[in-house]
Amino acid sequence: MIEHTPWVGSAYEQGLDGQKIAIVGYSHWLSDGEPDSPNVTIDVISRVVSGEYDDIAFFRLVREYFGNDDASEFWKKVMFMNFVPEAIGTGDDRYESASGPDQIRGQQRFLKLMKEHSPDKILVFTTKGWTQLPRLREESPPGKAKPLGAEFPAMSWGTYEGDLRPMMAFGLRHSQFARGEMMRRAVRFIMDMAPVEI
Q1: In sequence order, what are the residues at sequence separation of 6 or more whose Cβ sits closer than 8 angstroms to the Cβ of residue 35?
Q2: What is this structure's pTM?
Q3: pLDDT per residue as tens digits for the range 83-94
Q4: Which of 34, 153, 174, 186 meets the CB 3.0–4.6 Å disulfide criterion with 30?
């Protein structure tokens, strides 16, 4: 089985505003006949950075939510991965959900990579992916994450266990279905939040 290697920028440890940031999408899809490989995520972000893929709205909008105009500068400071460990299919399959086994693999991989890279904040730009991630520490009963605030409807957050302190995770809207101005305010609000202590 294929498992995509995440993109970890060369300045990830320096981060954005001194914070290590992980950005999570849902899945990659491939062109007809294009083979899947472990390097798909790294190849895609490398092409975003070079400008070859500057027309992919998801990556451009996420960068803009952070107030950054320079793709190379932004992506070298963050980590990026998709929840689904391998390609979901072709363009016709882009809106599909992962199978049960792939959801389990995605959850295990997510926890492994978060433990390995210890981000301060995890921003999940997919409602579908947010609902499929492993349970947050605050979820009792399951599915009851903390609302981000009245100003940000349908966005929520919680934490995962980290080595030194909890990793804060935020469920945001996919850029395709969100108002840019609200997303920019939500990201600024998140970046300004103080870390959660154990």
Answers
A1: none
A2: 0.93
A3: 999 887 656 666
A4: 34
